[in-house]
Specification:
It comes from Neptunicoccus cionae. By secondary structure, the chain is of the alpha+beta class. It contains 21 helices and 29 strands.
Amino acid sequence: MVIGFCLTASILATIAVKRIADHKSEDNFSVIVEQAVTSLSRTAEIYERTLGGLAGLFIASQDISFVEMDDYARAINIHGNQSGINAIGFASHGEADPDSLIVRRIRPRTPGESVIGTDFNLYPEIVKAAKTARETGTLALVPDIKLPINGELLSKGILLRPVTRIERITSDGSLRPAEFLGYVFAILDMNRAFATLSPAQNELVELRAWFAEGTPATPPLFQNIPAADANQNPKFVRDMHVESFGRPLRLLWTGSNKFDLIQPFRAPWVMLALCLALTALIVTMLRFMNRRERTITRLVEEKSNELVTRETERRSIIENAMLAIVSTDANGQILQVNGAAQSLLLTPKTIGLESRNIVEVLPGLDPSEPDSRFKLTLPATEYSHGETILEVEKNTWLTSDGEIRVTLLMRDITKRERQARQIAKMEERWDLALIGAQIGVFDIDFEKNTSVVSKMWRMMMNITSSIDPADPFKDLLDRIHPDDRENLTKAHRACIVGGCERAEARFRVSDSGSDWRWIQSDAIVVEWDEEGTALRMIGTQVDITDRIRVERMKQDFVATVSHELRTPLTSIKGSLGLLESQLAEANLPVAKRLVDIAQSNSERLYTLVNDILDMEKMNAGQMQIDAKAECLSKLLVLVSDQIAPYAAQCGVGLDVSIPKGNYRIWTDQKRIIQVLTNLLSNACKFSDQGTRVRLSAQLLSGEVRIAVTNHGPGIPEEFHPRIFQPFAQADTKANKKKVGTGLGLNISRHLVESMGGTIGFKSIPDQKTIFWFTCPLADDTDKNFDETETENIDQLRAAS
């Protein structure tokens, strides 16, 4: 009968454990999903509060400076809140062109400055979202738009909010009408917004997100795990439809392969094996029961008096113990508790613990579990501050009468467990962030001669185990190139003694004595004692091997272009010039034709070499700008005279007009002529035969806007984001017949921005194209101007 009971109990326990394991797995999956959904709601709230606060600034005053924008960006910690916001800004319709929607203000500086002046009206998705936001008065999102940021075309999200000053009665009793000011917007990294919803998201769950209802036919907007690595047969799935960012959002959560792997699916079989083993043990024990019975009877009589004494001592110890102690019978009925247990388990509604069942007091406790030490989590109540975590040690023993007693020793470890969880989560996030950014971090304690390094640092240095576990940073010195060790130690020594604020150094490192890799180290002392002695230094180290290789390739290329190409080109041009002058006297049309072709090609090659060298100077920050006050009309006359022969060669006319008056602009004459020559030559090159290219200047507040307009095929819309990139040329039939380097507009943009201006364009296919840039007015120029009065080119030449 005992064997049958044990087998039945084993089967029932196996079924119960399986249900518990399945329920626990489902609960774990639900907790991860609910945490991520809550995080998504908080992210949406952050976007709404951020744009709401920014709208309030522009409602209070439209003249918000870049400094105030920077202050607001720092106040909301735009990069530190992990919400996916890259930049915030303000866009409004232009006075000259009401159909435009120009970006007026944007911060922070990176990536913001490259977007200033962008016309959002050129993006149909943004126009549609702006119209919806203004009609509804709420936020409107464009989830995926290609924006030209820092010379690159990047996929970003745009979140718009209309800014309207409401109708209000002023202090003098008049009614101030409602006024639409424009739109505040945020540039979002949608991948970052979705990827940081939950710490366990990238490993334990797979997320796919669509901005649509139902099952979309298009690929998901976001997918944290590639389709090839996704779990093909997930055991846990959650399909959710929520409203976020002002649009319906579908979220499909599935358990990852790793999540399925760590679930306790084997627990029922382990329980069955344990129960069967316990049954075998019970059978074995029964065989010895009869043999031991007589011995036990004799021992009971001998130990009775001793037990009475021990009982008295035990009660004294239990009552005065710091641990919470509870004693129960075999059915879980509480028999005795000490003072610590009364304080831990009693609530205002509890009269007493005696005579109650232990399962009522400790929900989740399984009395059938064997003796062991384990953790028990009590659910939150109205009298507790959240759930309570206990460390429980269970001991089963027999009384002198042979009755089973169970003693539970309990300690409240809630605070310790919460702190341990927080520390573990923080360390996990920190390591993941550093590994993703490929940055190694070290922390040196000079007082204790110890150091702590990140997981990415060990991966970068290929150090799996340290000779001195307390100071793994020492192992780095043995891997540094002998010629570079002094660089690192000297930089650290200078920072430690206070000679410099930061310790920056480059050095080579290798774990095999060959195949050296370049490392960039940046450290700072963060703790000093009262006498000024450095106590602690933290720093980062990054592998810059590829960057060093590219820098050397660029240096070699520029040196080759400068010394091996430009020098012989100069000789070739001079020789062709002499040859042309000699052929002018001889009547040799074929030879002259060949010389002209050679001169044209050498001139093109010489221009390309100069453009490459200029571009390298700008990238290296070595381009010199000699800005001073220059006469606007003289500059336009000079450049128009230079470009006139080329315009005639292209079969187009040239018109010039600027505001009347002797206006002076702050610029470098050589560089602005280089910009204007490039824009005018492009305009002539791509104009229809018989049309006229117009060079004009318009006075604005504190600056001059110079524009070049031509009539021709225009610029394809898909090429607009790449127009200012180096070596970028539109692939059109008209362009295939034109010869160019693809560097002129990129160089022009850098020159204009270096002189304090901005540059842009607007093109209507098969109609007209306008390239414009701005220059600041000189301080001695009269700012009171009349925009309607202009002079033509003949009047300018006469004045000059």
